[in-house]
Design brief:
The complex is a heterodimer of chains A (569) and B (254). By secondary structure, chain A is an all-alpha fold. Chain A has 21 helices and no strands. Chain B contains ten helices and ten strands. Chain B starts with a strand and ends with a helix. Classes of the chains: A mainly alpha (569), B alpha/beta (254). At the A-B interface, α12 and α16 of A face α2, α3 and α4 of B.
């Protein structure tokens, strides 16, 4: 037992060292990076804290029903946090337990399965839960502030919170172990990502279609009793979330309640789950790891190999591919093939579809609200711009990094970095512009807007798409992450954050710069005698908009190309 | 074909290359030898424009690599020691992509793809995704890609790593064929001294960033005063300080 504990500790030491001691040459950069992300994280956590404090105070100020909302909200927050954690832990378990590269060395060494399994479990828990801890705790601190909670509330929180983290992560590790016994780890992970994305899309559309904003309007309910009943419905008395909510809310209100019972129940559940992990997880581990190695290269023996023919878009791309001999066409065909053969990438299109659906649904509702059409028209430009910036950070920003370790091929080819980036820009500009135009034209149709404004919108969206894509490709090339295995991780670095800031500023700047022509057209169309077009203002507006677009398109692309040229492989 | 003049490369305080001068003639199969960390890969990466030198210049076929990297790369094919490829492409699609990058016309791409797949024993795997290839197959595919645009110069880093004896024999024949039948130039680095001895017209030995010997194997023997028919391994150890191996062995035994 003691020996196992020592091994468990030894297995964690290298991970701790890697975390605490960044590479010497990158130390200064790592510190800046650490400070930047810590600052950003703190800012986000503080914003969340103050927003929740404000929201709870607003709720409590509503007579009769206001006091019911915070408790329900706490249960929902816990449920959402735990669901996110369960999903993240299950997906993370495949990588940490079965696919991590250092495992070959560890599994081939005479290390017992138990310490190895639990060392990986600790690593997975830390990876999966840090975000939930950082962004979940401010919510509970906000409750404490609003209800002026006593020390017992915080002590209760300290008792429940770690257990609430260990429960979903423990379940996640078990699910991954069992799935890996049935399928391969890589296939299971892809399948789970697909199912979770589909689930998210369905739930998101359902929530949106149910119009939760009606909760703020008591007229939406048949009676006050119906409204109150909805908030008093139990959240499932035997669930750990319910134990935690009931106890924490009781402590928050300073009630004399028994904390020991729920606390013992939840920790006993954790204990049972850990035993189950030790029993089932450890027993399945070696077989699961062996299967994961087979899955790493597919069933690669000759005739069982993964054929590229007959796949999505295969024949069409083969047809285009035959016409290669052109650098841009070759890059386009390669990018499309790689995109549609990697489920981690193309599955994100589902989210994109859901986003577009919800966006149009919302505009349908807004049309019936008391807003001037010109206000909605202007807001639409801002929102489309922000949606495109969000889409670009997911799909366009990683374009350069996705070349991965195979980037040496492009680098050793007779191709300038500038031409490589222009190709990436062209490949991504078209779909982004099509999405932007689609959203804009559909919203213009919903709002029944005059053709002249539609043409103006088209101009705006094309200029915005160009700037947004160039910023994403350019900044993506300034901060490439060729070593990242998971494409979803690429936008989460400094470059991704910087791009989002620049992208949003560009969208707002462009709309501000180009507002005058829209505004004057609106007044002239309304034949307002008080408004006359000022050619000076019009010229200034158009010139500043043009400068912004050219600047956004040229500067990051030039910086990106320069960085790639300087880069040493 | 290759001219390297006063080439130095510094990483912080560490000199990976110090003032290297080298001249490789057209139609020559040139071996670049040296122990681990001697600077072989760095030199090759600078030749292909993947790294910038701290000082010095490199010309490929008379074209300055630093001034005209695109033109220089157009005439060369590069095979790195680790074959990182696009895993989600099939072998055939990969070669088609490479042809596109070098501006080869589609007819030639199709013809060359078929030939090279045959030569490198990959025809049965042509439509499989690269992710299912073994290391040796990936290495052979990288070589096929380097030959696709019919380069005048081939820069090869450790060609035998991961190849089975059949693959190694094939590769040796292909390199010799490029030099003898098509008057191409091959610049290869290797740890397999046997390969250098069998294949190379001339070799250079790099040690701690400096060239310590250049010439044919016979000329090297004369340089170190070896009159007999000693193997290249002994010469190599003599040139790169192999005496410490005995000390290491003693420590290992202890």
């Amino acid at each position: 037992m003691m020996a196992d504990l020592m091994t468990f500790g030894r297995l964690l030491v290298p991970k701790l060292r890697i975390f605490l001691r960044p590479g010497r040459s990158r130390e200064a950069r790592s510190l800046i990076r650490f400070a930047f992300f810590t600052g950003l994280g703190l800012l986000f956590a503080l914003s969340m804290y103050f927003a929740i404090v404000w929201f709870l105070r607003q709720c409590l100020s509503v007579e009769l029903v206001g006091a019911l909302i915070p408790k329900k909200l706490m249960a929902w927050v816990l449920l959402v946090l735990l669901s996110v954690l369960l999903l993240s832990a299950t997906i993370g378990s495949f990588s940490t337990f079965f696919l991590s590269r250092d495992l070959t060395l560890l599994v081939s060494s005479p290390v017992a399965v138990g310490p190895l399994y639990f060392a990986r479990f600790v690593e997975m828990v830390l990876h999966s839960s840090w975000m939930v801890v950082c962004f979940g705790l401010p919510v509970f601190f906000a409750y404490g502030k609003v209800y002026q909670a006593q020390a017992s509330y915080y002590a209760g929180l300290a008792g429940f919170f770690p257990a609430l983290i260990l429960l979903p992560t423990g379940v996640g590790a078990l699910v991954a172990s069992v799935l890996t016994r049935i399928f391969s780890a890589r296939r299971s992970r892809d399948l789970l990502i697909l199912l979770s994305m589909l689930g998210f899309v369905v739930v998101y559309l359902m929530v949106r279609a149910s119009r939760p904003e009606r909760l703020l309007d008591e007229d939406s309910f048949g009676s006050m009793v119906e409204f109150i009943n909805m908030f008093q419905a139990p959240a499932g008395g035997i669930l750990p979330v319910s134990w935690a909510t009931e106890t924490l809310f009781g402590l928050l209100q300073g009630k004399q309640i028994s904390v020991g019972g729920p606390l013992i129940s939840i920790w006993l559940t954790v204990g049972m789950l850990m035993s189950l992990n030790g029993w089932v997880g450890c027993a399945l581990y070696r077989t699961g790891f062996a299967r994961a190695q087979e899955g790493r290269v597919g069933k690669s023996a000759g005739r069982f190999g993964r054929k590229s023919r007959g796949r999505v878009l295969g024949s069409w791309l083969d047809h285009i591919g035959r016409r290669t001999g052109n650098v841009h066409m070759a890059m386009l065909v390669k990018d499309l093939r790689v995109f549609f053969r990697d489920p981690n990438q193309w599955l994100q299109l589902l989210l994109l579809g859901a986003l577009a659906g919800v966006y149009l649904l919302n505009f349908g509702y807004l049309k019936h609200a008391d807003f001037n059409w010109f206000t909605l028209y202007t807001v639409n430009h801002v929102l489309v711009g922000l949606v495109l910036a969000g889409v670009a950070v997911r799909f366009v920003f990683p374009a350069v990094s996705l070349e991965g370790k195979a980037y040496w091929i492009v680098r050793s080819a007779p191709l300038r970095s500038k031409a490589f980036l222009h190709n990436k820009l062209l490949v991504h500009f078209v779909p982004v512009a099509v999405l932007g135009l689609g959203l804009t034209l559909m919203t213009c149709t919903i709002l029944e807007i005059h053709k002249a404004f539609v043409i103006l919108s088209v101009g705006f969206v094309l200029a915005m798409s160009l700037g947004i894509c160039a910023l994403a490709v350019g900044i993506g090339a300034v901060y490439p992450r060729f070593d990242t295995e998971n494409p979803a991780k690429i936008p989460t670095g400094v470059g991704g954050v910087l791009y989002m800031i620049c992208g949003c500023l560009f969208v707002l700047g462009l709309l501000l710069a180009g507002f005058y022509p829209t505004w004057i057209l609106y007044h002239l169309a309304g034949q307002d005698p008080r408004v006359h077009m000022q050619p000076g203002w019009l010229g200034l507006s158009l010139i500043s908009a043009a400068i912004l677009v050219v600047g956004a398109a040229w500067i990051p692309m030039a910086l990106g190309a320069g960085n790639l040229e300087k880069r040493e492989e | 074909m290759i001219k390297i003049q006063g080439l130095s490369k510094r990483f912080g305080d560490f000199y990976a290359l110090r003032n290297i001068d080298l001249h490789v003639k057209p139609g020559e199969l040139f071996g670049f030898l040296g122990p681990n960390g001697a600077g072989k890969t760095t030199t090759m990466k600078i030749m292909m424009g993947l790294m910038k030198p701290t000082e010095g210049r490199v010309w490929l076929g008379g074209v300055d690599v630093m001034k005209n990297p695109v033109q220089a790369r157009r005439m060369a094919g590069y095979i790195p020691d680790r074959p990182y490829l696009y895993e989600k492409l099939s072998g055939k699609e990969f070669l088609s992509f490479i042809g596109g990058l070098w501006g080869v016309d589609s007819h030639t791409i199709r013809k060359q793809t078929s030939n090279l797949m045959e030569v490198f024993d990959l025809t049965a795997w042509a439509d499989e995704l690269i992710e299912s290839y073994s290391h040796g197959m990936k290495q052979r595919l990288t070589m096929a890609a380097a030959f696709l645009h019919k380069p005048r110069l081939l820069v090869v880093d450790e060609p035998m790593v991961g190849l089975d004896p059949r693959g190694a024999k094939l590769v040796k024949s292909v390199f010799r064929s490029l030099v003898e039948k098509e008057a191409g130039t091959v610049f290869l680095s290797t740890h397999t001294l046997e390969v250098a001895e069998q294949l190379c017209d001339r070799v250079a030995v790099l040690h701690r960033g400096k060239i310590v010997a250049v010439g044919s194997v016979e000329e090297l023997r004369r340089q170190v005063g070896d009159q007999g028919t000693g193997r290249l391994e002994e010469l190599f150890l003599e040139l790169t300080g192999g005496a410490d191996i005995q000390d290491a062995l003693r420590m290992f035994a202890a």
